[in-house]
Amino acid sequence: VGSCFDLKQLAIAIPQIHFSNQKTDVGLDLEFANGGNLALKLLYSIEKNSYDLHIDLKKFDISSIHPYLQQFLNISQPKGRLSTNLNLHGNLNHILEITGNGNVNLTQFSATLSNEQPLGNIDNLQVNIENIDTKNNIYHISEVKSEGIHAQFGISENGNTYKNLLVERKKDTLSSTEP
Fold it and tell me: For residue 178, is pLDDT > 60?
């Protein structure tokens, strides 16, 4: 996709690996050069193939994920800081069945459309997740707080500000064959 993450520091800790009743403990700490830290703590049971994953992301510069966002949004370089503290639990035999809780916080966010037309900004957006259970389709968001949300909306003869926000999907040329 063309994205690059520069790291200032990388630390990996694997105190013990267990092949029996206990869980293997793995820790990963990253410090990004353009700001932000990521700490992962994984407890993994090889016997049950289950895991407990704690994700602690602090002040991650979201401009780094711009190439990924461009795949579905027509925006130029987004700005902002993302922090999250999540606890996820699952089993690798059923990878789409995840339970978890935590919070997500986005600060100093701003974005413009690809034609440099302002889209909007958010000073602070916080989402507290009480419980997520993908197997049972439960998504309990306990609180959403926002401060300083500004959206730019304009109308022109070609449509409005948000008309071309989503990237148009290209037709699948492989699925249709002509005789």
Answer: no
- CB burial of 29-58 (b: ≥16 within 10 Å; e: otherwise) equals ebebeeebbbbebbbbbeeeebbbbbbbbb
pLDDT grade, residue 156 (50/70/90)? confident
Q: 126: part of which helix (H) or strand (E)? A: strand 118-133
Q: If you compute the radius of gyration of the chain from its CA atoms, what whole number of angstroms results?
A: 20
Could you tell me the sign of the dihedral formed by the alpha carbons of 151, 63, 53, 56, in that order? Answer: negative
Beta bridge partners of 27: 13, 41
State the pTM of this model: 0.76
Q: How many angstroms separate the CA atoms of 26 and 122, rounded? A: 35
Q: Is the dihedral of CA 81, 87, 92, 96 positive or negative?
A: negative
Q: Please, what sign has the CA dihedral across residues 51, 57, 60, 62?
A: positive
Tens of pLDDT, residue by residue over 77-99, are 789 999 999 999 999 999 999 99
CA 150, distance to chain mean position in Å, is 22
